[in-house]
Amino acid sequence: MFKLPRPAALAAVLPLAGCLPAPVPVGLVLPADPNLTVPPPRYAKATQGVKDFGVVETKDWRELNRQVNPQAAGGGKTDRPGMTGMGDKRDAGGR
Q1: Model-level pTM greater than 0.85?
Q2: Sign, Cα dihedral of 36, 37, 40, 41
């Protein structure tokens, strides 16, 4: 028996299943409530709340970092275990 017509017919009918109308939501079918009050539209600027970021003078990035984290102003020394000697004056480190 030759079974090619069934899959071919199924392949031709399946795309047509997308053409069926979708059920309409109930809220779209019911009429609007005439007693419902709606506030009037109000004007709002498109640039409302926008800040002006003008050109400013350049600052030293080291000083800016100290302002953000004043605890780290110790010159890079840390009290983490295993980090002793890192950044000390004695550490030549190939410099």
Answers
A1: no
A2: negative
Look at the alpha carbons of 84, 85, 89, 93 in this order and tell me if their dihedral is positive or negative: negative
Question: What are the pLDDT digits (tens) for 25-53?
Answer: 777 777 777 787 888 999 989 998 898 88
Is the distance from CB of 77 to CB of 70 less than 8 angstroms?
A: no
Q: Report d(CA 32, CA 30) in Å as an integer.
A: 7
Given 3-state DSSP classes, what are the helix, strand and coil percentages for the chain, each rounded to the nearest 5? Answer: 30, 0, 70
Strands (E), 1-95: none
d(CA 7, CA 9): 5
**Exposed, middle or buried, 2 (CB in 10 Å: 0-12/13-18/19+)?**
exposed
